[in-house]
Amino acid sequence: METVDFPALTAWSNGQWIHLDLAKNRYFGGAIQRDAALQAATMATVAKLRIGVGEPKMLIPPAAELLHFLRCCRVAARVRREPIRTQLDLLRGARHPSKSRHSGQQQAERYAVMYQHLRNLRFRRPACLEDSVCCALFLGRYIERPSFRIGVVQPPFMAHAWVQVGDMIVNDVKGAVEQYSEILRMDL
What we know:
alpha+beta, four-stranded antiparallel sheet, 7 strands, 37% helix, globular
């Protein structure tokens, strides 16, 4: 699988820049000079939550979706200790042709609710990165343009991953992600 170079991944958090170095699989902080427009745009990145309320019958997935969810969980668990770049390459390689995916908010909400329900049936609650990789793999097959995101904040330094479809946060809640400055966004 070929690796693709990403642009410089930086986010502004509490008066400092945080950098994600994919080649070395690490974060680091420091002051660098950026123009005011970029700084304002970065600081304005705030996650939004749109609650998708579904019908109970939406919670019972067809067998094909259930099997796909289980495969996504297995793949995400297998790569959870790999570097972030490897996980991003996996997501990039798993993109499905857009003609096989649904568009529209109603379909996005349907599959988001289905994922949330299936995720709650797991025996072990995965960390945010593993859960987000699983979610992105699952949604990437059914809906157009799910967005895998990583955010950072300091002090103290913390990083967090989540998946969004438009303004709807799929595998987290607004309160958990709004404190993070987005450092990476990958549309699938």
